[in-house]
Design a protein that fits this description.
4 copies of one chain form a homotetramer. Helices cover 67% and strands 0% of the residues of chain A. In chain A, α6 packs across α7. Chain A starts with 18 loop residues before the first helix and ends in a 7-residue tail after the last helix. The N terminus and C terminus of chain A are likely disordered. Chains in contact: A-B, C-D. Chains A and B meet through α5, α6, α7 and α8 of A and α5, α6, α7 and α8 of B. The first copy, chain A, binds a DNA duplex (31 and 31 nucleotides) through α2 and α3.
DNA sequence: AACTAACCGAGACGGTACGTCTCGTCTTATG
DNA sequence: CATAAGACGAGACGTACCGTCTCGGTTAGTT
């Protein structure tokens, strides 16, 4: 929490992007959003807190949405998906980890991205792409289930993935991230049981 | 939707709310949102279009969120749920009708409510309540399915309902309302099949 | 100054002016101006404090200026001018009493009348008339001086009166009402000595 | 006063005050006050007429009073006082010139300054300082008269100066600037004659 | 070694919207 | 018909941010 106060001021490092400046701006934006809430988040406030000029921000992030997306992706951990060999367990873990990750501040950022996407088409497009990519990743879980014979071969793995994502979004957007392991398991059971072949 | 242009100007009708004014404001707000998009929607612009004073708006709708909620509820049709006796059909119809309803302008309004709820806790609370109420209504679909023996008695009807709602929200918020009847049926099948008892 | 609070609410007393209402409005206006300052004075605030309807105020005082003038005249004492037989003494007393009177709250009201007159021609006209009348009254002081042979017969008594008034206004409008008897006497001397005939 | 209409729009010239903007704002404010009267004068209207943003005005003139004072001082001519060697003539010229100056639009501005000072203490303080300074300048007239032996050495030159100023204010504030040279001379005579030593 | 080019901070600028205040008018319900 | 109440259209208040612009200073690469 202690502010160094040593650096005094960042300067240009020549005709190229200064990484320290970019860091400082992302740090400031993230801190503002998480510590002071969404209404405190504005380009003006970010510039103030980062001790950066507004044009510097606009140079690299032409809109609020791009800045939010950068904050989110910077903090995003590499992989969330487990592969335990048991689909129900994999799904349970996926839900648990995603919600847990969102509880730790990242959710606050993602909520704002979704909100921004409702006003700005460019952000919407980026969000749509991101969601599609996540759907492919999570869909792999179900594809493995099909391969193992756990669930019916005519299952749509991406629709199943979307249903999980959608539920998580819904909880996030209605501020109901108080989801414990038993509830995650119940969700997994209810989603998967229907997808199972009759023999299991 | 037809603009009379005859009335010239609304006046006070004494020390009580003038219904014509309220109508005009809601009309203006709805039209702005749907015709000119979310960025054009501001209290200022609503007042201008409705030829109303800003304090008149703030008197009755203390925040942007309350105004959005009023627009949404004013245009909301009474009932969406069918009762055909077949759960899969009921679910298909529910999805189809909800998405269809949202395609007709109401979705634009609801998206903004969700976005606003990410910034304003009061709106979030209202949205949470509304979602819970909808969950209870849609849950009744599944309760009937349990009663009929179509699905397992240990099914959580409100979780099932939430999954449908969540999927619809997700499509709305990523601007993917191009959902036809076959896709609605596939969703219904994938949700319900798992909920069915083994005998069916 | 004590607020009764007993009457709870004044009602119409039939098809005629209710004196209690007028009193309450003037009381409220005066109290607001003196207790809370000129910025707190507005028709809105007066109505609130007097528990009166705004139209009631507008019915009897069509503008802010007329209300201010009524407040001022209501509290105005009958006569200020002395007749001691000595002009210098009469002038000294006039200045002393006028300033003293203004120090006691009335000055606050009169300042606002002058200010209002700079914006509203109707108030300006009323103020002009009032000033002319005062000039005639104070001029009589100097006319008596001429009659007594104290000052030159070609003296303009109304110009002399205006100079005294003007000086008092100037002190009031620059918030310099800290004028003691010696200073009043010095003013009187400086004004009168020049007006005296050579013999005195 | 000529409106170029060529410039299209003023822009920022970097992190420093743009003189063209300041000029345009003062021009607009002065023109509004003189051409359309005091009720038309508002920060909003000034911004509109100057094609300036409201924050730009508030940045440099934190209150209405400071803006009015700037308008007045911008148009103020350097010196008003003559030194003819004859006190009565000097006084006559002072009155004549001051009133003449005020008749030409500046009076309209000064009236509003006085009015504003009755509501806002900051403006009042500035006005008080200005009046004191003017008193010192005009007082010099009478000091020269004392030095020349024209008037009594125990005369208070600043009180005499204040009496002239006060009379001018009084005429301005009651909209009676129709003062011709004979009247100015009569005032000068009435003021000075009394101040003269007996020998003259 | 001088020059160019882009970066950086700062902050002014024209705007728009915010949410609040007062204006003066209107209508009702109550007496 | 006077009154209290308060809704209404209008518009000004002073503030916050928007996105753009120019400035002066910095540092790297290119001549």
């Amino acid at each position: 929490m202690s502010e160094p106060e040593i650096d005094e001021r960042r300067r240009s490092i020549g005709a190229r992007r200064n990484p320290a400046t970019q860091e400082a701006i992302l740090d400031a934006a993230e801190a503002l959003l998480i510590e002071e809430g969404p209404t405190a988040f504005s380009i003006e406030a970010v510039a103030r807190r980062a001790r950066a000029g507004k044009p510097t921000i606009y140079r690299w992030w032409p809109s609020r949405g791009t800045l939010l997306l950068d904050i989110y992706h910077r903090q995003k951990p590499a992989v969330i998906h487990a592969d335990t060999g048991d689909l129900k367990e994999d799904v349970t873990l996926f839900i648990e980890r995603l919600i847990g990750y969102w509880r730790g501040g990242a959710g606050q950022v993602f909520r704002q991205i979704v909100a921004e996407a409702q006003r700005d088409e460019a952000t919407a497009e980026k969000l749509r792409e991101y969601a599609a990519q996540r759907r492919r990743q999570t869909g792999a879980l179900f594809e493995r289930g099909i391969a193992r014979g756990e669930i019916a071969p005519d299952t749509d793995p991406f629709l199943a993935a979307e249903m999980l994502s959608a539920l998580a979004w819904h909880r996030l957007l209605t501020d109901r991230l108080d989801l414990n392991r038993p509830e995650a398991a119940r969700i997994a059971r209810q989603v998967v049981r229907g997808l199972q072949t009759r023999e299991n």
